[in-house]
């Protein structure tokens, strides 16, 4: 077996070993009674991993079904109104399972109809439009995690059935972008970016840049909608506005092109040193959003900025913000997958062997004695590490990224749609 083939085998073996350990621990570590149902928690996150594995080995289908059954039992009591939590997180897992098994279609139809009704009712009430008009818009109104952008991506999983909801959501995001002024973009958030941040540092709110909560996420969502054939009044203008704004917001220094995570409205820009290779606020997420815009409406300057930023990231030995960060959100797994997605649409950009180097970094840190394989820093002190079984920061996301690398093919299920990377 070649060196590349051996590394890919190791990546698959790690992903499968952690998945088996997750299954073993389901009855003891995730006891009935606690409400999970978010992509930060083991349920339904493990269903995303089990669905991907079931595409290669049907023995995972019963385990997948068991996780989905457990998730469905928590549906009525689980909070959450966006893509990452509550009913929509279950719906996302059901969509992945349906792609592999061909089942769950009636459950998806019922759940989607209920969620679509709620979303349309919310838009009809005009709550977000009023907050936009009065300058009270906040991140959960529009972001990927809880807001309109993530909800839009969810319904794009079935664009024909949900054409009305998709058009309404796209129009609402276009309205947000086009409501901006030179000194205050339309997506300006009234509250500080992080809970507990001193509000006096953001007296007029903050402007969020990244994929999870800011301009890049909206750009990716509108670009992906356009790719599916969706077009509402002002759609292309909004994409162009966001992309040009991101190009203007970038900074260049000895480490290459990068973006601030966010900055206060009264500042001209944020700190330039966010050379982070994660998804949420890092360069790969923002560069991928610009690339999606370029694939949709073109733009040489945007393409050049995105390519330069990604080249700077992949040239660094360890691009994660910390040598102990593994997850999709702001760790090496997010780097590995976002770089692969970007390179797939930009042939010749990626130096030979660079994905191998990133995946080797992850595999080398595998605990080995399962313990779910990967641990995340506990927040907020980041002095200890705890088991994290979720999709966005934990073992599930790491293993999905490794399994994709190990297979040498695109994912069998579009699990990275939740990250708006595709």
Automatic annotation (TrEMBL):
Species this chain originates from: Asanoa siamensis
Protein name, UniProt field: Lanthionine synthetase-like protein
InterPro entries named in the record: LanC, LANC-like
């Amino acid at each position: 077996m070649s060196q590349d083939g051996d590394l890919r085998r190791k990546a698959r073996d790690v992903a499968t070993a952690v998945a088996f350990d997750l299954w073993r621990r389901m009855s003891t570590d995730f006891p009935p009674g606690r409400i999970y149902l978010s992509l930060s928690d083991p349920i339904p996150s493990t269903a995303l991993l089990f669905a991907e594995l079931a595409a290669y080995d049907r023995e995972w289908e019963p385990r997948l079904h068991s996780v989905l059954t457990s998730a469905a039992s928590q549906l009525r009591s689980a909070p959450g109104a966006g893509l990452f939590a509550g009913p929509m997180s279950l719906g996302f897992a059901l969509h992945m399972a349906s792609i592999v098994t061909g089942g769950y279609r009636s459950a998806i139809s019922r759940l989607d109809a209920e969620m679509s009704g709620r979303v349309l009712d919310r838009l009809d009430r005009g709550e977000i439009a009023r907050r936009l008009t009065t300058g009270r818009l906040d991140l959960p109104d529009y972001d990927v995690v809880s807001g309109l952008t993530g909800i839009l991506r969810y319904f794009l999983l079935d664009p024909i059935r949900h054409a009305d909801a998709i058009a309404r959501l796209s129009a609402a995001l276009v309205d947000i972008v086009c409501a901006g002024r030179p000194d205050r973009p339309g997506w300006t958030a009234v509250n500080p970016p992080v809970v507990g941040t001193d509000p006096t540092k953001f007296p007029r709110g903050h402007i969020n840049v990244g994929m999870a909560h800011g301009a890049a996420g909206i750009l990716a969502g509108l670009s992906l909608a356009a790719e599916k054939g969706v077009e509402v009044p002002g759609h292309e203008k909004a994409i162009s506005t966001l992309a040009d704004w991101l190009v203007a917001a970038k900074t260049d220094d000895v480490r290459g092109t990068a973006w601030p995570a966010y900055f206060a409205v009264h500042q001209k820009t944020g700190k330039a040193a966010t050379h982070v290779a994660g998804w949420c606020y890092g360069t790969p997420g923002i560069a991928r959003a610009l690339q999606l815009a370029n694939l949709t409406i073109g733009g040489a300057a945007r393409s050049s900025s995105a390519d330069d930023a990604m080249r700077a990231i992949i040239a660094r030995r360890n691009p994660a913000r910390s040598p102990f960060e593994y997850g999709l959100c702001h760790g090496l797994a997010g780097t590995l997958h976002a770089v692969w997605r970007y390179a797939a649409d930009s042939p010749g950009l990626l130096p030979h062997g660079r994905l191998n180097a990133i995946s080797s970094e992850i595999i080398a840190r595998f605990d080995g004695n399962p313990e779910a394989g990967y641990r995340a820093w506990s927040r907020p002190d980041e002095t200890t590490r705890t088991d994290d079984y979720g999709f966005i920061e934990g073992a599930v996301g790491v293993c999905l990224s490794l399994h994709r690398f190990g297979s040498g093919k695109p994912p069998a299920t579009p699990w990275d749609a939740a990250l708006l990377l595709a």
